[in-house]
Amino acid sequence: MARINVNPTRMELKKLKARLKTAQRGHKLLKDKTDEMVRRFSVIIRETKRLQDEVEAEVVEVMRQFSLARGSMSKKEIELAFSMPSVSLALECTTANVLNLEIPKLHMEEVSGEDLYPYSFAEITSEADYAVAAAGKLVARLLHLAEMEKATSMLADEIEKSKRRVNALEYVMIPDIEETIRYITQKLEENERAGLTRLMKVKSMLEERGS
Question: Which terminus of the chain is more exposed, N or C, with fewer CB under 10 A?
């Protein structure tokens, strides 16, 4: 603990007591906020891990289907089939407020063409059809996963900052103010005792002179 460098006066004592109350109230609010962020983080991290496992399994399956399609088709046929997109995507990024933290939210709008599969079925295998359909469904889940991973990263950083502020209040600021309050209180009490002693001595001297 380190004492704050202030004059030991009643005015400073009053200011420090008000400052202590503010710091204690701020510490409680910040700790409650940190605890709630940790709770939210735990929920999101579990959901993110679940989604990661699901998306990874889906990506593996899509790649497997693409590999099967590539094995039964020529390179030229593959390039021709997959170079004609039938769907266009528009992505909008907004934010959502989570405990005063702006978390990004991704909104995808899909515009499909007349044909989901813009190629001749006679030239393309069923594995390629499946791979195209599965990849299309996977895009939205990948965006959702990216959104959640960014949220967990931002929450983790904010929790770390909030914990540092809580610790600074709990172990530095509040103890320093309390130590300074004790010091000023002791100095004021010493001054009062010294003043009372002087008054008693003056009174005794006056009584001696009067007698």
Answer: C
Give the residue carrying structure tokens 């991290």.
45
Which string of b and e fits 104-136 if b means at least 16 CB within 10 Å?
eeeeeeeeeeeeeeebeeeebbebbbbbbebbb
Report yes or no: 62 and 141 within 8 Å, Cβ to Cβ: no
Beta bridge partners of 183: none
Q: What is the pLDDT of residues 26-70, one digit of tens each?
A: 999 999 999 999 999 999 999 999 999 999 998 888 888 778 777
Q: Strand, coil or helix: what is 106?
A: strand
- Rounded to whole angstroms, how far apart are CA atoms 136 and 120? 19
**Domains of the chain by range and CATH?**
10-206 (1.10.287.3240)
Is the overall model pTM greater than 0.70, yes or no? yes
Beta bridge partners of 109: 90
Q: Using alpha carbons only, what angle is made at residue 139 by residues 136 and 142, rounded to the nearest 5 degrees? A: 150
Phi and psi, residue 89, nearest 5°:
-120, 140
Q: Which two tokens stand for residue 93?
A: 């990024």
